[in-house]
Amino acid sequence: MATYIIRRLLQMIPVFIFATMLIFAMVFSLPGDPIRALAGERAQSESVRQALIEEYNLDDPLPVQYGKYAAGLLRGDFGANFRGRPVSDIIKQRLPITARLAAVAFVFEVFLGVLAGILAGVRQRGFFDSLVLVSTLTVISIPIFVLGFLAQVTFGLKLGWFPVAGIKQGWISYLLPGMVLGSVSLAYVARLTRSSLIDNLGADYVRTATAKGLTRGRVVGVHAMRNSLIPVVTYLGIDLGALLGGAIVTETVFNIPGLGGAVFDGVVRQEGTTVVGITTFIILVYMFTTLLVDILYAVLDPRIRYD
Amino acid sequence: MDPLLVVDDLHVEFRTDDGVVRAVNGLSYMVDRRETVAILGESGSGKSVSAQAIMGLIASPPGFITKGSVRFEGRELLTMAEDERRKVRGADIAMVFQDALSALNPVFSVGWQISEMFRKHRGASKKEAKKSAVELMELVEIPDATNRYRSFPHEFSGGMRQRVMIAMALALDPDVLIADEPTTALDVTVQAQVMQLLENVQAEFGMGLVLITHDLGVVAEQADRVVVMYAGRAMEKGTIDEIFDQPHHPYTEGLMNSIPRLDDLNERLNPIRGNPPDLLRIPSGCAFRPRCPYQQPDCAEVEPTLEFVGDSGRSTACHHWRDAFGE
Question: For residue A268, is pLDDT > 70?
Fold first, then answer.
């Protein structure tokens, strides 16, 4: 197991290099002049313009630019945005906000999703099963910004239960956007739990558990569920990575200054350093969560061994 | 005193989208303590379904027990409240399944799965349950039981897994043990060991054993009495010697003739021609009629019922057994 983890950590190095290169090239190939865009409608003096181009190495060919950036990374320098603010500062400031939003979304989708999946799965084709299938399909089909606006209007404005936007009111400000952000994953978790449970309820070992004279609750809750959770955990792990990477749409709708918004701003301003810095960070988060999932996998399913 | 287990006129059907599959159509037999009854039949003859009906393992829908009765020590199981029925399962009537690899839960250790019986039925502490489970594993001759307690099903060989299943079934000292094709998934050499184990534990625990199999060799070695099933019905019932020495039903005769013989290497295999019936469309009258070498016109009209042959208690469900096999 230890050698496996070390091997997985080492694999992160080439992925890291390749991913940063790719994203850097993509930002580089965006059309437009980022320095000119900084000034907007106003005139920009040629000397300022030249100084900025010089500072951010924008005249160099792509490989040279990337080389300079990568050299900085090795020194632990993520670079700075066009206003001179270090990217590591941006991450430090925005990550806690994104983490709080992700935590709300994750707790919401895990508990409600698994619960709905179990209740639907134990009585296949029952009323609750149909309810879960229809409602999850609805949630999956509606674009998340529509869900966000609906939630704002209903729970924020009309009912007044939650703040409409912003993060000024502490934890409660994260509840509504967190639920909106987690709703689609909740739907997937519920459906995945349901179908996985239904599969397992038809398995031979469930019949054995029944033949042992165990209660239905134990047969389903212990024997079938332990097996059914394996694919659900995989999904949740990947989803946790996605949540920690920021949520551009939800953050925009609810006016939350998280990582997603920072990436978006970076793309709009063609700030290669910001975009590459944050996305690289997100890729690292992804790789760690998938590693975590794979380790958890072996814990849940003794048939899986990494030797 | 009531007999240990009585199955009486059991009917089980599955209502599917394609129609009603009549899996068991009026099966009756009984088992007493220290007795082994073999239910012999091809796949699809309803032998496993009848066992699951006794255990209450038929999922409904689609499965329905439409008629009949199953009595354990005089208590009717089919109408019993689910909570009471549950206490019969595992404790009074236990079952060993065919494929132990899929019948054991892959994510729990075998020791955990055996000791669960003591923890959940007897309220035993973890420590007590573990001790009893290790003892059981030793009883079914799993070597190094204390260490193997923590192993998972996939870490065992097929024969050892089946021993785990047997240990689990024996945990609460049941009165009836139903073994559903316990050796089918195993190598021939291991089959003999597992059958020997079943024989030993039966001698030790004194339970009634219902042995469901399609293997005539297994039947010959172990059974006291045999019920030959075809299309969900009993075709012939009798003691092992009666059935093997002198079949009184064309189907039983066909089965006996299909055994390959080692002493005559030139003889060709002699299978029963045709295929078992589609349970959606069981032929009218005698279900075996289309494959029967002795068939007469009346076989298509009236379904034969079991009638006694002689006074030993053996019976056959054939209109023409007298013509075909003599008195």
Answer: yes
Please check whether residue B244 touches A, CB under 8 A.
Answer: no
Greater pLDDT, A29 or A237? A237
| Residue contact B106–A211, C-beta within 8 A | no
Q: Report the share of chain A in percent with pLDDT over 70.
A: 96
B268 has a pLDDT exceeding 80:
no
Q: How confident is the model at residue A212 (pLDDT cuts 50, 70, 90)?
A: very high
Q: Give the Cα separation of B72 and B93 in Å (integer).
A: 9
With CA atoms as reference, the chain B residue closest to A207 would be B57
Identify the residue whose tokens are 């009209």. Answer: B301
A74's tokens? 């090795």
Is-cis flag, bond preceding B106, omega within 30? no
Residue B210: the pLDDT is 92
Angle between helices B126-139 and B158-170 (to 10 degrees): 120
Predicted local distance difference test score (pLDDT) of residue B288: 85
Q: Which two three-digit tokens encode residue B50?
A: 């009848």
Residue that is written with structure tokens 């499965």 in the block: B63
Q: Left (φ > 0), alpha (ψ -120 to 50) or beta: where does A57 sit?
A: left
User: Pick from B3, B172, B19: which is nearest to B71 by CA?
Assistant: B3
The pLDDT tens digits for B203-224 are: 888 899 999 988 887 777 788 8
- For the record, the structure tokens of B225 come out as 């009495």
Report d(CA B187, CA A107) in Å as an integer. Answer: 50
The verdict on a CB contact (< 8 Å) between B154 and A303 is yes
Task: Answer whether residue B327 shows pLDDT above 70.
Answer: no
Look at A211 and B104 and tell me if their CB atoms are within 8 Å: no
ipTM of the complex: 0.87
Do B152 and A301 make contact, defined as CB atoms within 8 angstroms?
no
* Residues of A within an 8 Å Cβ radius of B: 203-205, 207-215, 218, 223, 226-227, 300-303
Q: Given this model, what pLDDT does residue B248 score?
A: 84
Q: Is residue B103 part of a domain?
A: no
**Which domains are delineated in chain A?**
2-74 (no CATH), 93-300 (1.10.3720.10)
What total number of domains does chain B contain?
A: 1
Q: What is the DSSP letter of A277?
A: H
- Report the distance separating Cα B61 and Cα B43, nearest Å: 22
pLDDT of residue A108: 93
Query: B105 to chain A: which residues are within 8 Å by CB?
Result: 205, 208-209, 223, 226-227
Q: Which two tokens stand for residue A228?
A: 């059914």
Are residues B247 and B236 in contact, defined by beta-carbon separation less than 8 angstroms? yes
Residues β-bridged to residue B178: B95, B210
Give the CATH number for residue B221: 3.40.50.300
Beta bridge partners of B95: B178
pLDDT of residue A101 exceeding 80, the answer is yes
Note down the domain range covering B59: 1-92+208-308+321-327
State phi, psi for A69 to the nearest 5 degrees: -65, -45
> Do residues B12 and B23 lie in contact, with contact meaning Cβ atoms separated by under 8 Å?
yes
